[in-house]
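Protein modeling request. Please complete all fields; requests missing the sequence field cannot be processed.
Requester role: graduate student
Desired output: 3D structure, token encoding
Chains: 1
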Amino acid sequence: MSVNGITGAGANVYEALPATQAAETKPAEETKDNASQKGENGVVYEPSKDSASVPVKKYVQNTELINKMKADAEAHTNQLKNIVEQMMGKQSQTYGIANNDMWKFLASGKFEVDEATKLQAQKDISEDGYWGVKQTSSRILDFATALTGGDPSKIEDMRKAFEKGYKQAEKTWGGELPEISKQTYDAVMAGFDKMAEDAGLTTATN
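Delivered output (206 residues):
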């Protein structure tokens, strides 16, 4: 074998080596590029491009519903005010008949009260009578509860409606109502306080 042959073979091996190394390192570079592309394309992670454009939820008042609720509350308040005025007026009238307080009825022409009417009136304003303090105050509170559906947040509104109805009854009566009506007033106010206390609320009188 000639020296030239050995030298030539060595040269061939030497020259082929860089080509082999290049072939071996190329896939690694491609893998690196592919990994980079995955990162950019979101296979591994993709930053949200829409985060800045996510719409913010807006809260708009339902004016129609609010107005309806206000109208309903006002109607209920007026109902209680009117019923209180009627109850207090009827209670006072019955009290007047039972106690011969005739001057209160002169303007209305009610000059005569027979004995049977007087006895019935006395029964009606007794402690357990229909127009007595207990039953009258109970009816007013029951009516208030029925109007509000037992909603504790409406207690003070009903209290104010009761006060307005009572004052209106005084105007209709022509001055202060009889003692029995004043006692009924106190009983109703105490009832509202109890309702608020049971609901864990602070009352207007505290």
